[in-house]
Amino acid sequence: MNDTDTYLNAVDGNWYRQRLSGTVICVFAVFLVLLARLYYLQIIKGSEYRRLSENNCIRLQSIPPPRGLIYDCHGELIVDNRPSFNVSVVLEDAKNPRRVVTTLAKLLNIGPETLLAKIEEAKGWPSFKPLILARDLGRDAIAVVEAHKLDLPGIMVTVEPMRHYVEGKRASHLIGYLSEISREELKSGSFRDSGIGDFIGKFGVERAFEPYLHGKRGKRQIEVNVLGQCTRILKTEEAIPGNNIYLTLDMGLQRTAEALLVGKAGTALAMDPSNGYILAMASSPAFDSNAFVEGMTFEAWNKLASNEFRPMENKAIQGQYPPGSTYKIVTTIAGLEEEVIDENTKYYCPGYHRYGNRIYRCWKRSGHGFVNIIDALAQSCDVFFYQVGEKVGVDRLARYAKGCGLGVPTGINVDNEAVGLVPTSAWKLRSKGEPWQGGETLSVAIGQGANLVTPIQMVSLVAAVANGGTRYKPLLVERIVAADDSPIHIGMPEPLGRLPASDKTLRLLRTGLVDAVNKRTGTGWIVRLAGSQVAGKTGTAQVVAMKHKEDQNGLESTPFRFRDHAWFVGFAPAEKPRIAVAVLVEHGGHGASGAGPIARQMIKTYLGALKIED
């Protein structure tokens, strides 16, 4: 090897050593950077990132169940569900809930105090569970939230089923409504599958059958990131829908009844006399059930609550009224069964009856002449029933009234049923501290005085007269089925007992009720129908203890609130009853003109529909 080769080899060795040293220095520098970064992440920022990593975790998300649907007896859908887009917050993920919610409020153009109040109300709510801030938002609002989701940690958009009442006000008192569960209800332990923000039945069928309609929550196992946003779904256990309910209600008849009550305060009921099924239950004025689910303002609620005609009251079962002459059905049964009268008994009616030093007048000032029990029922002769009541006495009248279902609940399982009042001598002594006066019995015998009944009691009574004497519990639900149509519950007729009346008494009673409608002298002549014999009884119930004169146009000159209530109870066809009705129009005047036409049209509508089906 010459000197030149030796020199070149030395140069190459130095170059390789320099390159190797440079590489080692670079690698060492990289490791120093990595060690510094690890030190920063694990030592300096370790606790913070540990918290963040724990938040990037698996959570269990609740899936609200679709509520059961409600149908009428023909399978017509009355109540269903529609999708609702909601915005919720998971407080644990929001870091600064007040700032996040304030930002959200600006995006939704909602006052921040409204959303912040939701958080304040939910104190004690688990911080890892979604808390609903706003319900039923439009698609544009949801799009805005989704577009800003990186600025809204802890905010999530969910879709859940919302209750929808197909015809709004239709049958609202019977069906009821949903509203957000209260803290008191949550604490009661009766709603174990519900939480803050959930909706439950608060009125009507929705409340009475809540356990059937509610369904069972599902579960979804999800993985979320540090913003609380779902990154993937790991496992899903679907919610079980609530059971579907088929009511005894006939929506065609219900629409007719409600249309006839427009502009009036009152109620119209129809029952199948053969089994106690409620075919129609209209109460006027009504309310829109959807308003409670969609969110009602304080002003809107106050307007409903302060309405003098009480739209939130189901007048069919909560209204209590003097029965007027419809009570003569009870007096007839008592008189015949106690044998103070029979079919041949006649009393003379000169237009008044003297008792002691008082004069008790008949509604017909000129009098009815000599009448028997059938004539007295047909023409509603007060004088005849004054004398029957005088002989029977108030306490025996009360016993028969209770036997006819008055003064006791019918058992219909919705909404705080009122029981009315059947006065007795002991009741007056106990409540007033005064002895019963004989003249009070005369008023009671014609449905005045302290008598109070509910329309549901009266339709149940007249239905029992129609079917031969069996009193049935009013039923609203025909059947309950699961989502797959498998049967859960079948509504069966529930007899409550028999009227305290013999077959002979009932025959005489029905004859008088038929004549009341089908004889020109009967007070219910206006209710007659061609092709079907209607039986019934009118009633005019005094609101104040006086009769008011009418002006030359036939309109009562007294203030509306002092006018008489109008009643009609009846059934048809008389020979084979298919429908029993009770109509009460508050301050409607005479029973024949105020309530009779409504009852007539209801009967006509229902029997006409039956003929079409047959």
Fold and architecture overview:
The protein has 24 helices and 23 strands. The longest helix is centred in the N-terminal third of the chain and has 42 residues, at 3-44. 42% of the residues are buried. It has 614 residues and is α+β, with helices and mostly antiparallel strands. The chain folds into three domains: 3-44; 59-247, Penicillin-binding protein 2a (Domain 2) (Alpha-Beta Complex); 251-293 and 314-613, DD-peptidase/beta-lactamase superfamily (Beta-lactamase), CATH 3.40.710. Helix 15 packs across helix 17 (382-392). The strands form seven sheets. Strands 2, 3, 4, 5, 10, 18 and 19 form a seven-stranded mixed sheet that branches. Strands 12-11-23-22-21 form a five-stranded antiparallel sheet, sandwiched between helices. The radius of gyration is 37 Å and the shape is elongated.
Please state the overall shape, judged from the principal axes of the Cα atoms.
elongated
Q: Roughly what fraction of the amino acids lie in strands? A: 15-25%
CATH fold naming of the largest domain: Beta-lactamase
Counting DSSP E segments of at least 2 residues, the number of strands comes to 23
Structural class, from secondary structure content?
alpha+beta
CATH architecture of the largest domain: 3-Layer(aba) Sandwich
Helix content: 25-40%
Q: Which superfamily, in CATH terms, is the homologous superfamily of the largest domain?
A: DD-peptidase/beta-lactamase superfamily
What is the arithmetic mean of pLDDT? 89
The profile of the biggest β sheet is: 7 strands, mixed
- The end-to-end span amounts to 126 Å
Work out the radius of gyration.
Answer: 37 Å
Quaternary class? single chain
Counting H and I runs of at least 4 residues, what is the number of helices?
24
> According to CATH, what is the class of the largest domain?
Alpha Beta
Q: Estimate nothing, just give the exact number of structural domains.
A: 3
Low-confidence stretches: 547-555
